[in-house]
Write a structure and sequence with these properties.
Layout (H helix, E strand, L loop, with lengths): L1 H20 L5 E6 L7 E6 L11 E7 L2 E7 L3 E3 L2 H4 L3 E7 L4 E10 L5 E6 L2 H16 L4 H17 L4 H19 L3
Antiparallel strand pairs: 1-2, 2-5, 3-4, 3-6, 6-7, 7-8
Length: about 180
């Protein structure tokens, strides 16, 4: 009897440990909520980009540098109220295979609700790089370029995208670019 019990317990533990590993999401996005009393929500997506309506549970996310436990019901999770007030939402999820990072711009819509725009991480590199190149080619515009760079960084930091999140987004974009070029 003890032989069977000693073999059964590790089998049960293995079953529960693999069940918890399957509680992962393929991807995610942020959308305006259609639920009553909620403004925006995080949507769990599968590998093909379709919502995972059967997914429920809680997963750790980093939102604007804060570690947040997002509780999913039917593939949807609501953001905490203090994070919804930010204009930028820098959302990072570290799954088993790789981390996924998204940057969203959230602003009040014309009618009640919010409009959520996905911002590609390449723009975090392209805009400052373009301004520096313009300043290098046109020396007379160097003061204007420095002012525009200052305004760019001030706008980002005052709207919820801190400097550390900015550089973390650039690092994630470069890592994704390197993984596409040289698969590990």
């Amino acid at each position: 009897m003890n032989k069977y019990l000693s073999a059964l317990i590790p089998g049960i533990l293995l079953l529960f440990s693999t069940a918890s590993l399957s509680a992962q999401i393929g991807d995610f996005t942020v959308r305006e909520s259609d639920r009553e009393g909620e403004s925006i929500e995080l949507i769990a997506l599968d590998g093909s980009g379709d919502p995972q309506r059967e997914f429920s549970g809680s997963l750790p996310f980093s939102v604007n540098g804060f570690e947040v436990e997002m509780n999913f019901r039917e593939g949807r999770a609501s953001f905490p109220r203090d994070l919804v007030s930010s204009t930028f939402l820098y959302v990072k999820y570290e799954g088993e295979a790789r981390s996924r990072t998204r940057l969203f711009y959230v602003y009040p819509g014309f009618v009640d609700g919010f409009t959520v725009l996905h911002i590609p991480l390449v723009l975090l590199v392209a805009v400052p790089l373009a301004l520096v190149l313009i300043g290098m080619f046109f020396r007379r515009l160097i003061i204007l370029v420095v002012l525009l760079l200052g305004a760019f960084f001030y706008f980002n930091s005052s709207r919820g995208l801190s400097l550390s999140s900015f550089f973390d987004g650039i690092k994630e974009w470069v890592n994704g670019l390197l993984q596409m070029i040289v698969p590990f």
